[in-house]
Amino acid sequence: MSERRRSSSESKTPFWKRKSSSLPGSSVQQTGSLNSKHKLSFKEFENHTDDAWDATDDDLLRAALEKVELNKVDQQIRATAQAVIDEHSKRKTLESSDDAVKNGNSSDTNQKCSNGKQAERDPNESDKNIISTGNGDTASPTEKESINATFDPPCKHRAGSAPKAQSIRLPMSSPKSDREQHRLKKFKELIDSENIDLEDLKKLSWSGIPAEVRPLTWQLLSSYLPANKDRREMVLERKRNEYKNFVTQYFESRHSTHQQTYQQIHIDIPRTNPLIPLFQQECVQHIFERLLFVWAVRHPASGYVQGINDLVTPFFIVFLSSHLNQDDRLKIESFEVSSLSEKVRQEIEADAFWCVTHLLDGIQDNYTFAQPGVQRKVNILRELTKRVDSDLHTHMEAENLEYIQFSFRWMNNLLMREIPLSCTIRLWDTYLAETDGFSDFHIYVCAAFLKHWRNQLLGEDFQGLMLMIQNVPTHHWGDEEIKLLLAEAFRLKYTFADAPSHLPDKR
Questions:
Q1: Is the pLDDT assigned to residue 411 strictly greater than 80?
Q2: Predicted confidence band of residue 338 (pLDDT cuts 50, 70, 90)
Q3: HEC profile for 69-111?
Q4: Please, what's the b/e burial string for 169-196 (b: 16 or more CB within 10 A of its CB; e: otherwise)?
Q5: Is the dihedral of CA 63, 365, 421, 110 positive or negative?
Q6: What is the model's pTM?
């Protein structure tokens, strides 16, 4: 009774006279994590970028399975899930093989996906070994029995979006119209002048550079060659000799110093464009190893970071093309580089080194500790998308999709894993013509790229968003698609670049 009176009297007592600590407006100590925005720690950054690299359907399923706590899940459930993934992965291989047989290409498919061994299949034997799974699909008995089977290495027909399986046709390789012929003539006149006006060259290059003059134009726009025509040969010889001395100074001692750096590069090189025969040649891989190792040793602030290896490929392709005839350029993806003289190979390597160095000098904060440049650009992309396409931004937020989960790769690899290599070369024509093209303008290109897929993304849940956004269908893209992408990026830059309040780091 006394308790009831006390509670009744307390309810009538003004809150400022009560002895309770729970007063209106008083702070409440939180025991859990806060929802307020905060700067990502390095560990959080790593966790957010788990899905930032190549991801096929099976990769995402496998990643999700690996995150399951083993001590809380029955082993039989895990085994069943693993079996589903194994079966799904192998079934896609069978489907690809069947499609190839129908198209009369079975021999090529078997050769590329079976480590060069030609598989001979007996139709009768095949019918005996394939059994029904009850849903219209088929699977072999060995697939059902093998729970912990090893995943097959990627082959051309089941590769994800990156890097694109393709033949490399250099963009703007042969002028077809009078207008293109006129542009080529203007490029040659400008390049042959005694002192090049670099601003005029940038304006002309923004809309694409003809393949015939692209190597020299890229070297000029990368500040590798001087604008003065008379000094070019002297500078070229000096820089090439300087790189040769770097190789002698640093690379020859790779097994005694910076061993970890060399080991990481040695592992990553075979992964560089694995679907293009050119980059699987031992000669080419040695070029990339030397170039990347020398750059990493000379830039200790960042050192070598996975993804930098991709940035060498456009320069290598472009500078290699300057030493090929028209026929070899058309099949450059399979050209035997070892057929070139050692002197020519050394020149290509040195030229690529200095131009990659110039590129990375402008985006090195992408690769220093915790990669602050990438984080900053991802935040700008988020704010930009929020303003140019609020519906898409709201949908991704509702599905708890973090921008860094997909756009980390876009910033780290400059979209090279999302579009064919020929499109990357055309894109870089414009980047080199832009002030801070690889740093600032690239963000607007990423915003335009994301906006391009809005209709497909709006109807997807989280898993569908991740699968779509990391496997965008760009294998058919060419000059026209890149032209439209750049036009939209330019429109976004024109609209927002001079409006500081729209972007967080401009305020």
A1: yes
A2: very high
A3: CHHHCCHHHHHHHHHHHHHHHHHHHHHHHHHHHHCCCHHHHHH
A4: bbbbbebeeeeeeebbeebeebeeeeeb
A5: negative
A6: 0.70
